[in-house]
Design goal:
The complex is a heterodimer of chains A (about 475) and B (about 100). Chain A is an alpha/beta fold. Helix content of chain A is about 55%, strand content about 5%. Chain A is built from 17 helices and 6 strands. Chain A has a 6-stranded parallel sheet. In chain A, about 55% of the residues are buried. Chain B is mainly α and about 100 residues long. Classes of the chains: A alpha/beta (about 475), B mainly alpha (about 100). Chains A and B meet through helix 1, helix 2, helix 3, helix 4 and helix 8 of A and helix 1, helix 2, helix 3 and helix 4 of B. Chain B: It catalyses: NAD(+) + NADPH + H(+)(in) = NADH + NADP(+) + H(+)(out).
């Protein structure tokens, strides 16, 4: 049997399994089998790749046994480390792990470009152009994702901003493109230090591009870098004449781009605005004094009030997950449901740290997905709700986004919690939200504040309701 | 019968890129928001296929710098694929409708 035929056939099957797997992942009913299907494709493709050993370039023949050993060690190390870290990571920290794995993929694409270039293995100008482009995009994705990971993980807290930053970044990008063009122009035959400079500058650019972006915008950035890595992989696939890389990379590149646009749209901002506007800086400026005062209420009283309500809508935010209160919240929900209260969850598109992150966190606590509603499906129901309870959310429920033109979040669609008859806001203290914007909801007449750790608040509410006895 | 690998150049490559791009667009376009995070993670896993390209590059390395970069490439690519798979699988495990809830 011909090795090349086997390899090509395996890649064909793998590409099919990837697309079919992604398709299955796009519906909640079949999603779980989707990843398994795609995983089978990956295993097949990796195993088939070892057939390359039968047919390597003549120059590489003397190195083959060393290279094969290196390949097995690298595979084992990468797989072992990622498998362990992926199993261990808490659901709340999922976004930064996705960023980290994504950056690794970008780095691998850049590594392929580097080998092709420094080995002078690529000659046609189309291949060279794509190798260079894939190299830049991959390297930017690597360093940018690492910064995104560090920011979400709390390892970097400051946002780097200085006047002229965009000018510096702009010139850096132009310089990168100029060096890339120089490499292509010379048919890839340039001195090694030029390649080195090229990749170092690309890495620096990724850092400089990501540092000024605030933590609240990281989901969009991670999604963008996910698309970047896909593109880079697709381009390097062309250079290596590997259709599996071309197809998988381009599918992810376009799917990731669309996802990025959807996320930016959910925040009512453009992707360019996220990348270049220094959002969040406005939080330091004057926003006008809030009228009225924040009215505190006891957690138990709020719980009992919910027990006698007909309809309760819950608007959870990332603060809920930080306090690890999802499980207690679901316990409370079940108590309310037993007392014939209609309970629904309202999820803002950017609740959590990624779109859909809140759904994952609630799913982890066992909340069935059919009582969880997207913003557009439930926003009209708030006015019929007796109680809306906001737990650990802030900017996504701030009515200033509707009315106050000077607010930095003006125009962002929000959950209409303020239209409920009674609003409870569970919050640790009197601080501002992730974006640093003051929240008018907290001062509204129908709002009462339940101060305290979300988990403890849930426990108090549960106890208060239980102390009433089983009243059906 | 001798089999030779198809060389994908010029417009054939362009067709592949175009069709793949539409495929990605169509798959994500009709997805409910609750699956955005798992799907982002799932697509993150799929570009882990880059490990295959890195493997080829490493196996064909003919100098020390190429071996070092190739080693790093395979290491990173394997991490992307394995990590992407594990976190996606863990997330998707959790999605259950009311009726099928395993608890209670």
């Amino acid at each position: 049997m011909n090795a090349a035929l086997l390899i090509d056939a395996s890649y064909f099957i793998a590409a099919f399994l990837f697309i079919y797997g992604l398709k299955r992942m796009s519906s909640p009913l079949t999603a779980r089998s989707g990843i398994v299907v795609a995983g089978a494709g990956m295993v097949l493709a990796v195993l088939a790749s070892f057939l390359y050993t039968l047919d390597v370039n003549d120059t590489a023949k003397p190195f083959l046994s060393t290279n094969l050993t290196l390949a097995i060690i690298a595979l084992a190390l990468g797989l072992g480390w990622a498998w362990r870290s992926g199993k261990k990571v808490a659901m709340t920290e999922m976004p930064q792990m996705v960023a980290l794995y994504n950056g690794m993929g970008g780095g691998a694409a850049a590594a392929i470009a580097a080998i092709e270039l420094i080995g002078y293995k690529t000659h046609s100008s189309v291949s060279l152009t794509l190798a260079v482009l894939g190299g830049v995009i991959g390297a930017v994705s690597l360093s940018g994702s690492l910064i995104a990971w560090a920011k979400l993980d709390g390892r970097i807290n400051k946002t780097l901003r200085f006047s002229g930053l965009q000018a510096v970044n702009g010139s850096l990008l132009l310089l990168l493109l100029a060096i890339g063009a120089y490499i292509v122009w010379h048919g890839g035959v340039v001195a090694i230090p030029v390649f080195a400079l090229f990749f170092v500058l690309a890495l620096v650019y990724g850092v400089m591009m990501t540092m000024p972006i605030g933590g609240a915008d990281m989901p969009v950035v991670i999604s963008l870098y996910n698309a970047f890595t896909g593109l880079a992989v697709g381009f390097e696939g062309y250079v290596l004449n590997n259709p599996a890389l071309m197809i998988a990379g381009m599918v992810v590149g376009s799917a990731g781009s669309l996802l990025t646009l959807l996320m930016a749209k959910a925040m009512n901002r453009s992707v360019a605005n996220v990348l270049f506007s220094n959002f969040g800086a406005a939080g330091d400026e004057e926003q006008g004094e809030m009228e009225g005062s924040q009215k505190p209420v006891d957690a138990g009283d709020a719980g009992i009030n919910m027990r006698y309500a007909t309809k309760v809508i819950i608007a959870p935010g990332y603060g809920l997950a930080v306090a690890q209160a999802q499980h207690k919240l679901y316990e409370l929900v079940k108590l309310l449901q037993d007392a014939d209260v209609e309970v629904k969850f309202a999820i803002h598109p950017v609740a959590g740290r990624m779109p859909g992150h809140m759904n994952v966190l609630l799913a982890e606590a066992g909340v069935p997905y059919d009582i969880i509603y997207d913003m557009e499906d439930i926003n009209n129901e708030f006015k019929e709700a007796d109680v809306a309870i906001v737990i650990g959310a802030n900017d996504t429920v701030n009515p200033a986004a509707r009315s106050n033109k000077s607010s930095p979040i003006y125009g962002m669609p929000i959950l209409n919690v303020d239209q409920a008859k009674q609003v409870y806001v569970v919050k640790r203290g009197q601080g501002k939200g992730y974006s640093g914007v003051e929240n008018a909801l907290f001062y509204a007449d129908n709002t009462q504040m339940v101060y305290g750790d979300a988990q403890k608040v849930m426990v108090s509410m549960i106890q208060a309701i239980k102390s009433l006895g089983g009243g059906h | 019968m001798e089999y030779t690998t198809t060389i994908l150049t010029g417009f054939v490559a362009l067709y592949i890129f175009m069709l793949a791009a539409f495929t990605g667009f169509e798959i994500i376009g009709r997805v409910p928001a609750i699956l955005h995070t798992p799907l982002m993670s799932g697509s993150n896993f799929i570009h882990g296929i880059v490990v295959v390209g890195a493997l080829w590059a490493l196996l064909n390395a003919a100098s020390l710098p190429e071996q070092i970069i190739g080693f790093i490439g395979v290491l990173l690519g394997a991490g992307n694929a394995a990590g992407g798979y594990v976190v996606t699988e863990r997330m998707l495990q959790m999605f259950k409708p009311s009726g099928k809830s395993t608890k209670e």
